[in-house]
Fold each of these.
Amino acid sequence: MDPSDTELLAAIAGGDRHALRILYERHAGWLVLRLSRRCGDPDVVNEAVQDTFVAVWRRAASFRSEGEPAAWLWGIALRRLLDRMRRRSRWEPVAEWIQPGVVVSAEDQVMIGVEHGAAGAALDRLSPELKAVVQAMVLDRLTARETASLLGIPAGTVKTRMMRARRLLREDMAT
Amino acid sequence: MTWHPSVDAISAYAINRLPSSQAWSIEAHVAGCDPCRRGAAYLPGPARLEAIWEATLEQVDAPRRSVVEKALGAVGVPEHLARLLAATPSLTVPWLAAVTVVLGLGLAMAWSSAGDPAPSARSGLFPFLLLAPLVPLAGVAVAFGPVVDPAYEVAVASPFHGFRLLLIRTVAVVATSTTVALALALLLPNAGVMAAAWILPSLALASAALAASTFVSPLVAAGGCALVWLVGVTVIEVGPRTLVAFGRTGQLLFAVALATAVILVVLRRESFEIGRRR
């Protein structure tokens, strides 16, 4: 029987390097994908994932066993990404929000549609700049300042874009 | 949860080809779904994942960064440079403690004769003035060369040009030891201008040692300079110590020596390139 993530974290806290490797194999790939949707520079994403597992190695003991390990990891990864972005002297553009050629099965469409409905359609009609702000502030629950450093724009711009996105979504769903 | 996104959908997510609403649904699902997460784990490609893992291991294995290193990092010094500076023997806490003790002795001697009437009272400053210029000199000597430098291997592998590296470390060493000496010099009794009389000689000595190290090994260069200094100043100050060596003419000579040494170092900078050094 495979050890659970929580058991792995306990082993890592005790200095078990093999446990770190297993945890890495389970989570690193997904973290790379998820961070890549927030930062267009693959090098920065790599560094952030690396920082994440170094942090896990050093701070595994601070993980509370009643928590969800995957969510804990994601929290660390997102902060590390922000750190790395802040340290950059020049800004890399966020991953482009290209959308043509979507290849999703009909079944997926239905399931996703059920989950989001009109809100999803309205969301997709937002401009890429607005979407990036909504993703950072709503999905990732970042503050305006954190969003600003992630996207490389002033915090004031983040706030105005968020207001504009809210208004557009409201209007779009009302019609 | 009965529904799972298809492999196709997750692949489309991975290459950023899903509308936001669908991407967010997938994210929300996979974040909480172990099997889907494991299914997506291979998508970034094994080469990339292995590279990140190697880099992670390297940091896991590396010794924890010292306090000095963290402080340097916090003020914006790049990581590899911070490590190099922190590994410089003459920038460590034990070294600075030793320096403080030695100069503290000079300070104590100055104070023990502070009650004497002038002019012999000033001669009490002599030990301090004799010792203080040796501090940056010793620091520079210890900072370079494979004999005493644990960072020698790091230095060899560092992305810096040998000469640039040398300048960075020299400035760091001279600045720290001068700061320590200066702090103690301010405690000298009745010193007046003489409290600063050691600064030019110490800069002259350190740069002379650097210049000499383009001809001979760093330790020999530093040893030679120290010897010349100790013998020269003691001979001049033999008998009643009037501190004439630290007077106006003396300072002028030190300034000339400093300028000469700096010019020599710049002219012969090639010999600092690692591998060619003796």
Note: Chain B has a mean pLDDT of 78.
Amino acid sequence: MELHLSILIGLLVVPAIIAAFAMDLLRAAIALLVCSLGLALTMFNLGAPLAGSFELSVGAGLITVLFVNAISLTRLITEEELLERTKDHYQRFAFLPILVLLIGLMMFEYQDFWASGLSFIKYNETQTMGEILWKTRGLDLIGQIIVLFVGVYGISILFRRGKPNA
Amino acid sequence: MLNLFIVDWITVVVLFCIGLYTMIVAKNMLRILIGFEIMAKGVTLALITAGSVNGKIAFSQALAITVIVIEVVFIAIALAIVMITQKNKRSLDIRKLTKLKG
């Protein structure tokens, strides 16, 4: 329990706060990487090693590479822009605790409903994850493949070399 | 188990709210995507927690993997759009995208 709690707080909540609050985008991307690591460890801890390793390779690896790549292609900001941004950066997050409190209260009002999450789903409990993914949730896989193709097609359209539109 | 469940759900609420709030207040497009990522991590944790509590961890893993795949594709496309906007407008400020075609 202590280990689980320290992973949740130290590697999930604190990096998420740093990622949201950090002025430097690169620091925010690295905090997001630590957040992914924390999520993967939590998944291992809750008995979901496959999803954990997937999160570790894709969430922590691929997404961080994409973010760092995008950040490296952005231009540096000027001194005036930096001053303007630092002026009200932290004040903008003043209402965050209120939002956390409101959504938290709403969640605990319907605690039984959330606790019964996924309990309405009927499936053969002896099935392994692979069998569920391929047999029970076959449509999900088709959807994933379509989404992947759409992603590849979208990126190839966006980075197409040719005559720029007038 | 219930204590673990409550602790996990508090984390889910905190992650979701941080992500949502960042998406609302941020003006930089990359920061908005970071907010989305934090929110998506909260949702993935919610799925795994729900499966763990109800003994349906295999099912929740399958759903979590689907969520992660869609999240990655979304981020890849969104970052490509951000890069193109940066190239054309020389800025990542979402407020400067008010004069689009269409």
Note: The mean pLDDT of chain A is 83.
